[in-house]
Amino acid sequence: MLKIDNLELNYGVIRALKGITMEVNEGEIVTLIGANGAGKSSTLKAISGIEKIKSGSITFMEENLHRKSAQDIVKRGISHVPEGRRIFPGLTVLENLEMGAYLRKDKEGIRQDLKMVYERFPILEARSKQDAATLSGGEQQMLAMGRALMSRPKLLLLDEPSMGLAPILVREIFSIIKDIKKQGTTVLLVEQNARMALSIADRAYVMETGSIVLSGSGEELASSKDIQKAYLGG
Ligand code: ATP
User: Fold this and answer.
1) Pocket of ligand 1, candidates 13, 14, 17, 163: which has the most ligand atoms within 8 Å of its Cβ, to mutate?
2) Ligand 1 mean position to 210 CA, how many Å?
3) Which residue's CA is the closest to the ligand 1 atom numbered 19?
4) Which CATH number covers residue 62?
5) What is the predicted pLDDT for the residue at 175?
6) Residue 45 sits in which domain range?
7) Number of domains the chain contains
8) Is residue 131 part of a domain?
9) Residue 225 domain-assigned?
10) Which residues face 17 on adjacent strands?
11) What is the DSSP letter of 10?
12) How far is the CA of 15 from the centre of ligand 1 (A)?
């Protein structure tokens, strides 16, 4: 579904991605793990067209995303939930969700998807008329995910969904991610919480300073001694 080949991305003189190659197959949860600054967020930003790449290619459903605008990429079925849950403060929860569907014209489909989002995140329905800025951290994460789902993505890019959340909410978010996969959306997940990420991932890639250094099934990597030492606290 998604193929990344020898992708390079620079910020000025900083080489954030030094030629990464990876793929995501339809129906999978694939996770990218690695230390701070390894290039995980940059990979997602390159896919969603937020950052320009230096070289290499990104192909989604057989189509090269080169020079496509971020908006075009959403239209093709990729939705990105950035790190730090950028919800729109000053807009209500419902308005935030509607913003997620702003490129769509199918009113009936939008209505169905809003219902689906409310079923998945009942708290968002309870708070639908409230200013999004008044939500707790966990609720804002749910809103950011709900908003992304409102574009009816084929591929959902999630950047650190567990960041800053209490353990019970982390478990809830991960269970929702599994659910999203079950409903047929493919997921590329960036996580610091490697243990949780590997536990739900079909496959994983490990990044270090702009390169992919290891890959395998979630299970394989979770049981690897090296990974345990480096990323899972021994
Ligand atoms: P984190 O979990 O901390 O976000 P990451 O693995 O997602 O880490 P990136 O955010 O992709 O890593 O960053 C990769 C490298 O690029 C780092 O060295 C980072 O400092 C640098 N970088 C990221 N964004 C920018 C930017 N806008 N300008 C300059 N350098 C940047």
Assistant:
1) 14
2) 9
3) 37
4) 3.40.50.300
5) 92
6) 2-86+152-231
7) 1
8) no
9) yes
10) 9
11) E
12) 10
Diameter over CA atoms, the chain = 51
What is the pLDDT at residue 231?
Answer: 80
Q: Which of 75, 149, 18, 100 lies closest to 65, judged by CA?
A: 75
pLDDT tens digits, 150-208: 999 999 999 999 998 889 889 999 999 999 999 999 999 999 889 999 999 999 999 99
- Residue ranges of the chain with per-residue pLDDT less than 70: 234
Answer yes or no: is 60 within a domain: yes
Which residues does a 6 A CB cutoff place in the pocket of ligand 1? 11, 14, 16, 34, 36-42, 83
Ligand 1 atom nearest residue 34's Cα: 6
Given CA atoms 42, 155, 183, 219 in this order, what sign does their dihedral have? negative
Cβ 114 vs Cβ 74: under 8 Å: no
Asked if residue 103 lies in contact with residue 113, where contact means CB atoms within 8 angstroms, the answer is no
pLDDT of residue 234: 59
Residue 47 per-residue DSSP state: H
In sequence order, the β-bridge partners of residue 10 are 15
Check: CB of residue 31 under 8 Å from CB of residue 191. Answer: yes
- Whether residue 58 is contained in a domain is answered as yes
Rounded to two decimals, the ipTM of the complex is: 0.94
Contacts of residue 232, Cβ cutoff 8 Å, sequence gap at least 6: 194, 195, 198, 222
198's CB contacts (< 8 A; 6+ apart) are 31, 33, 204, 218, 219, 221, 222, 227, 232
Residue 199: count other Cβ atoms within 10 Å of its Cβ: 14
